[in-house]
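Onboarding guide, step 5: your first structure request.
Type a short instruction followed by the sequence, for example:

Predict the 3D structure of this protein.
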Amino acid sequence: MHFDVFTEGKSIFHSLDPRMKIAVFIPLVFIVAVLDNVEAAACYFLLGIFFTCVTRISLRELLARLGALNLFIVLLWITLPFSINGKTLVSRYKSNNNNWL
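The system replies with structure tokens like these:
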């Protein structure tokens, strides 16, 4: 696998100093990670699509790399509900009260 496939290009992002990229994008990642507003998350999603279009990277290679990452996320979605305590929504056993939600 060629790891430097996204480093070669002629866009404005490729010409930026690597220190500038780190100084700008690391805070952006933390801001997006702690969002609790769906509208703001959608705006940052559109910003990511815009950045992808500006850099003119290969969509096929990007989707291949994101596919591997999303496989990991799906595994987290499957295992996480069984690893923490929470309110039971559905039970196989009949309870004494009729409120199952």
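Each response can be followed by summary notes, for example: Residues 59-79 form the longest helix (21 residues).
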